[in-house]
């Protein structure tokens, strides 16, 4: 008579259904932590919609979307940097510098050794201005990747450099009238493009949507995205695996500079002026959006979807506080408290995950020990 032994179910396996397929367990705590940004957004919208009838009007929603788009675009570049475990404090100043460069190009470019003044076409102005933002990012990346300097120190220094260059270019004056261009100079059409509303949405919202799709594909469907997550999780292990760590570091800061440059152009069109204080505090709002969206400041974790939702959380919160008449000073206090709460929740999530991993490791170790223990000898 033959006997058949049944292999024990692997430890840690979840409950099974009658058909033998593993049943999916619902963990409410995990859902609340992972979806905290979306839950916060729904709560904020519900509260302010009850407090004000003007909150969910079409006009106000369009205004919120336009303002959120500026922060979201910068935040997408910041996401790339934070995924790598870095930080970019220079993005706000880069926004201002890009707008200052564009404004001066609208004024005209004095050609050396001649009495001529060149007035570039609008598309040339836009390309050159955004290229300046990418140049700032490239310098940041080069110093961080090649000289192994701390991202915080490098980008903090670049914050002052870019803001100082902005003030030098503007010389204490705002550039406003020149932005419309002149038909006989061939540099008109700036506002017609960058202040337009295709299908009722501001152009900044369309740019945000396009970049969100592109960045999502970049992170999930390309080797660069896998390299970025790998370097953020464990830079040394990624380097030993053949990942071009230094090249990835340089590129992410160039991408961050590109996003800041795009926002500089869009924001200049939005306010119809290039000012010395344009872009102030953008870096803080961008970091807040990324963190609220679930990214880890230590790197290796974060999504485009979460970052966009985080930007909308900040935008809807700020707009709601204005709608209900909260003092601007208290607005900063409340926004700061929300950011601290988001970081605290992120840390709680990591602690919970570490404890679960530790318990799972203990259970697996005990199961392995039971399986390797030889059976006791039967008495003669």
From TrEMBL:
<feature type="transmembrane region" description="Helical">
    <location>
        <begin position="37"/>
        <end position="56"/>
    </location>
</feature>
<feature type="transmembrane region" description="Helical">
    <location>
        <begin position="252"/>
        <end position="269"/>
    </location>
</feature>
<keyword id="KW-1133">Transmembrane helix</keyword>
<feature type="transmembrane region" description="Helical">
    <location>
        <begin position="152"/>
        <end position="170"/>
    </location>
</feature>
<keyword id="KW-0812">Transmembrane</keyword>
<dbReference type="GO" id="GO:0022857">
    <property type="term" value="F:transmembrane transporter activity"/>
</dbReference>
<keyword id="KW-0472">Membrane</keyword>
<feature type="transmembrane region" description="Helical">
    <location>
        <begin position="307"/>
        <end position="327"/>
    </location>
</feature>
<dbReference type="Pfam" id="PF02653">
    <property type="entry name" value="BPD_transp_2"/>
</dbReference>
<dbReference type="GO" id="GO:0005886">
    <property type="term" value="C:plasma membrane"/>
</dbReference>
<feature type="transmembrane region" description="Helical">
    <location>
        <begin position="281"/>
        <end position="300"/>
    </location>
</feature>
<feature type="transmembrane region" description="Helical">
    <location>
        <begin position="333"/>
        <end position="352"/>
    </location>
</feature>
<feature type="transmembrane region" description="Helical">
    <location>
        <begin position="122"/>
        <end position="145"/>
    </location>
</feature>
<keyword id="KW-0813">Transport</keyword>
<feature type="transmembrane region" description="Helical">
    <location>
        <begin position="68"/>
        <end position="87"/>
    </location>
</feature>
<feature type="transmembrane region" description="Helical">
    <location>
        <begin position="199"/>
        <end position="219"/>
    </location>
</feature>
<keyword id="KW-1003">Cell membrane</keyword>
<keyword id="KW-0997">Cell inner membrane</keyword>
<dbReference type="InterPro" id="IPR001851">
    <property type="entry name" value="ABC_transp_permease"/>
</dbReference>
<protein>
    <submittedName>
        <fullName>Monosaccharide ABC transporter membrane protein, CUT2 family</fullName>
    </submittedName>
</protein>
